[in-house]
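ARCHIVE CARD
CATEGORY: sequence design from structure
SOURCE FIELD: tokenized fold
FIELD CONTENT:
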């Protein structure tokens, strides 16, 4: 019996170009996500000069800007960073759902990996725990996913 050929990405940045798109709303939380993402990218060999950080007003604004970046074909992956924290109105539900669905559509329709680093939490405390607290840093996790997915995309494209 032949061995199964396994194809998977790795965590070496090399010459990968990665864009970060971060919302300004809930800035204290999002800035921690950005720092975590940048640190994770640097720890895996990213050249800061090859990274680009694009700011948008809020999480709802992430999908159209990420789409423009993906369609430019200047980047191998995009990391979307934001925080949607539940309030007293249904606003949370609409913003969180549209942001997630929009980013998934961008990745699916463009073929450019989009890593989802958007927190959707019930409280500020939960958000802070996921932005460098007890729950780790989801910005760093998203950056690592972006590296792996971009690496995998290259390997699959070279077959």
């Amino acid at each position: 019996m032949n061995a199964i050929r396994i194809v998977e990405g790795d965590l070496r940045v090399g010459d990968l170009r990665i864009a970060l798109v971060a919302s300004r709303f809930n800035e204290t939380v999002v800035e921690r996500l950005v720092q975590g993402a940048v640190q994770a990218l640097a720890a895996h060999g990213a050249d800061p000069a090859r990274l680009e950080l694009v700011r948008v007003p809020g999480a709802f604004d992430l999908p159209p800007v990420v789409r423009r970046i993906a369609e430019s074909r200047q980047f191998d992956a995009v990391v979307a960073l934001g925080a949607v924290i539940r309030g007293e109105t249904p606003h949370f539900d609409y913003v969180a759902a549209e942001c997630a669905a929009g980013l998934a559509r961008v990745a699916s329709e463009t073929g450019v990996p989009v890593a989802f680093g958007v927190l959707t939490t019930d409280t500020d405390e939960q958000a802070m725990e996921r932005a460098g607290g007890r729950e780790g840093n989801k910005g760093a996790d998203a950056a690592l996913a972006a590296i792996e997915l971009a690496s995998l995309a290259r390997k699959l494209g070279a077959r």
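CARD ANNOTATION: The longest strand covers residues 77-85. The chain has one domain: 31-153.
SHELF: design records, drawer C
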